[in-house]
Design a protein that fits this description.
Shape: globular
Radius of gyration: 21 Å
Catalytic activity: (sulfur carrier)-H + L-cysteine = (sulfur carrier)-SH + L-alanine
Pfam families: Aminotran_5
Number of domains: 2
CATH superfamily of the largest domain: Type I PLP-dependent aspartate aminotransferase-like (Major domain)
CATH class of the largest domain: Alpha Beta
Enzyme class: transferase
GO molecular function: cysteine desulfurase activity; iron-sulfur cluster binding; metal ion binding
Helix content: 25-40%
Number of helices: 12
Structural class: alpha/beta
Order of helices and strands: EHHEHEHEHEHEEEHHHEEHEHEH
Number of strands: 12
EC number: 2.8.1.7
Amino acid sequence: MEPIYLDHAATTPMSNEVIEAMLPVYKETFGNPSSVHSFGRKARQHLDAARRVMANSIHANEKEIIYTSGGTEADNLALIGTALANRDKGNHIITSAQEHHAVLHTAEYLEKQGFNVTYLPVNKNGKIDVQDLQKALTDETILVSIMYVNNETGIIQPIEEIGELLKDHQAYFHTDAVQAYGLIDINVKTMHIDLLSVSSHKINGPKGIGFLYADDHVKMNPLQFGGEQERKRRAGTENIVSVVGFQKAVELAVEHKAERVETYQQFKQLFLEELTNHGVEFQVNGESQEQIASIVNISFPGANVEQMLTNFDLDGIAASSGSACTAGSVEPSHVLTAMFGENNPCTTNSIRFSFGIFNTTENVKEAAERVAKIINRLI
């Protein structure tokens, strides 16, 4: 029985083109990009070329791209770095109750440092209300962090409206775009986004590399100290091999964006249709029209998350109960709790399925058939 991977929101397999782009660098480019000799300059050329590609992908300036170890570090740098650097302007931060833990746990840390944090609620469709944000803003607000696409439900947040609201406010606007990047057109300048986090392994690139876009005007403290890499904002010798792989993944994502969106939407529709055809009772969590193409979060009334995931795995289906960072946890999803309230059955009977470039019409249909068989047996 062929295993079928439907957990691309957790991580994606590296594409063959990315691997091929990285191999020569492993063999030939070992210089330190901070060195002035030819070996260092060769490494620097790779670093600079990749930075230009990443900046262009979001319509930023290449000097505004900071390489990080991934989305978590980018989120930490965005929140802690700007909060500490701008404390003289205020100590109020706004985020939402359904953020990734990389943001939520960072916000909790900042609360311990004396900052006041407002956690905006989300409605049953999985979106924040921009009016709630407007009401929460004060003269003390220095940072607003709202994710672009929720990693559990795939719901797209009103980022453009938020940017428009904040453009004349002192607060910096950060968005965790880890799930949006590569599938949604992003222009950080016209959308008035000051800080934006991206992770390579969500777009078929290598793990351990990401970037933080920080607009030139953003005042931000570094979180680690050492050399003067990344314009003194992120010390440490850059990971050239992973940067090159990340660059290739970005290039492929940009080139095939429209095609991938259409394909994933077809996969999602096929998957849901097959469940219906096999008599499975389910509901999609969140407003489907506001959902990114690659993710669908499904509630199966009467089912249990752990039991479902165990049986899926035994039948070769890889899916998730929510954030990969809480895999193995028996606690209800904080995202679905924010949407539906505590003790709602959806918080413990919902599964996230997410599609990627290695899925096919055939294996998506097969996966739906296996899932339907399991659900009908369990309930």
